[in-house]
User: Fold Ribosome biogenesis protein Nop10 from Halocatena pleomorpha.
Amino acid sequence: MHSDIRVCESWSDRHDRPVYTLTTRCPECGGNAVNSAPAPYDPTDRYGEYRRALKQRAQE
Assistant:
């Protein structure tokens, strides 16, 4: 699944809120706009356990 809605790639640095658009450029700053949809969930992900363990270690 791929979303047509895009968000400014550097919104956290340049804007005080996410800026959404349907084009490939941010309407406010002219920067790149990227897909705003999250990655699809895959229940057969063989490396999910390791990724979650690394994420948990990084938070500690």
Remarks:
- The two ends are 33 Å apart (CA to CA).
